[in-house]
Each structure stands twice: as C-alpha cells, then as structure tokens.
Write a structure and sequence with these properties.
This protein is an alpha/beta fold and 268 residues long. The chain is built from ten helices and seven strands. A seven-stranded mixed β-sheet has the order 2-1-4-5-6-3-7, sandwiched between helices.
Length: 268
C-alpha cells in the first residue's frame, strides 16, 4: 500500500490533475471527498464486511443489491435512503457493497454533510470518468430547521441547470425517516403546510427508501450466536443466551449491541 502511495505521489509531480484521478480510480475502490480542498483521498483500508454475514435485514439487502447491480450495469437507478433504528446495519450494509461488488466498475465516495455544497465539483470528476459507476455515500444524514445544507442537497440532487452525471447515484443513511424533526419548532409560520411540503420535497428525491426496524429478541440472539461462533467464544448456549439477555437490558437488541456484547466476552 505504501509503495502504491509513493508511486502516485511521484506521478503527481509530472501528470495533470485529470491523469492523476484516472490512476486513482483504477487503483482504488473507495475515496473520501475533501470538499475544502476539492480533492479525493483514496481509502487504503477497504471494509471487509461480507454482506452474507449481516443478519435480520434480508429484504433490505435484496433491495440494495438489486439497485446497485442495475447501476453497475449502466442503468439509471434511484437515489437510496436507508433510514431507521440506530445499530441495525444501515451503514455496514452500504460499506459491504464494496466487498460484494469487488472487481467491478463500482467506486464509492464518502462525503460529509458539511461538504454537500461542494458535490457539484465532485460531479465534474465523476463525469470525466464515465467508465466507473460512483456511489456518493452520505452517512448519518439529518438536518435541523433552517440548516442551509438541507436546501443545498435538494439543489445538488436535482442538478439545477447542470445535469448531474449519469454514472453517479447518492446513497445516504439516517436515523430519521424524513431527515428532519417531525415537528416544526417555529410557532410563527403563516403557512406551516409549506414547511411540510419543503421537507417532503427532499425525501421524494430518494426514489428508494429502505426502512430498518428494531430487531426481535430472536433475531438479536441469532446474531449473538453468529458472532460468538466466529470469535471462538467457549460458553454453553444456555450461558451465552443468559448473558446476552442481561446485556440487552442495558444496551438494547440491535445488531451493534450483539457485536459489542460478544467483544465484551473476550475480556477475562
């Protein structure tokens, strides 16, 4: 990895910016967008999570895989919002696409909420590399009232006068179904229904909205058993279930909680 980074550094001194980006797209599968510098940083440590190891979200996996597969095949697909309970695998599912679609033209670019306004510059880079299919990934997306990024994202997703690249799509996660608080904090609005319409206008730009819900106790215990087996935990099943129940009373029955519980068992 270090050798590859040095090679790119050397090339950067003699090649144009476009040429450098083409090298990066050929060598790396994922990037982090620096909106301030208008630059891409290759991700060296690609997530290795296998999508088959995500339990309790079979329908959600199916929908996301189908949308992503069609996108890689060159079809126009919907922007995707994964919303719902925290700790249910929304972010992990998106990251696992990198492993699932390894050795394909898929590239993933993570953008922070604070850099949303600069996505138009990122679009220029994506447009110049049509042989790749780029997911713009925005994690843990939500807005408070009057945040400008809310309107910025609407404009970015519409494209405005400048059409967005056909080889790009936005995947976002959020704990909020509507990305914003359910109730307006302003008591002085003359037409509150207009605010509701404005909120809905952003959500409608995500044509595929996938919900994630609280796991049942049975699903939670199945995830615990899987992680315990994978990590070589040598407890009897009865003991494991008893301790898992005790853990859940404090931490809940999410997939994240199950994983953290098994990690705690590795400490003497």
């Amino acid at each position: 990895m270090a050798h590859r980074a040095r090679k790119i550094s050397i090339f950067s001194e003699i090649l144009s910016g476009d040429a450098i980006i083409k090298i990066m797209f050929n060598k790396s599968q994922a990037f982090i967008w620096n909106g301030k510098e208008k630059q891409l940083k290759p991700v060296i440590r690609i997530p290795t999570q296998k999508i088959d190891e995500l339990y309790g979200i079979e329908e959600q996996k199916k929908l996301l895989i189908e949308n992503t597969k069609a996108f890689i095949e060159g079809k126009r697909v919907n922007n995707v919002l994964l919303w719902g309970e925290r700790g249910t695998g929304k972010t992990t599912l998106i990251k696992s696409l990198l492993n699932y679609f390894k050795d394909t033209p898929l590239r993933m670019i993570q953008v922070l909420k604070s850099d949303i306004i600069t996505i138009s510059y990122l679009y220029d880079i994506i447009y110049e590399n049509p042989q790749f299919r780029c997911i713009i990934f925005i994690d843990d997306l939500s807005f408070n009232e009057n945040e400008e990024e809310f309107r910025d994202l609407k404009l970015i997703m519409d494209g405005g006068l400048e059409e967005f690249p056909e080889n790009s799509v936005i995947y976002a996660t959020s704990n909020r179904r509507t990305l914003m608080p359910a109730v307006s904090q302003s008591d002085n609005e003359l037409f509150p229904e207009d605010t509701l319409q404005e909120r809905a206008s952003l959500i409608e730009r995500f044509g595929l909205r996938i919900g994630f819900y609280r796991f049942s106790e049975e699903q939670y215990l199945e995830i615990v058993k899987h992680y315990a087996s994978k990590n070589g935990i040598s407890l009897s099943q009865n003991e494991l279930i008893k301790k898992a129940h005790e853990w859940a009373l404090v931490h809940g029955t999410t997939g994240r909680s199950a994983y953290q519980f098994v990690l705690s068992l590795q400490i003497p």
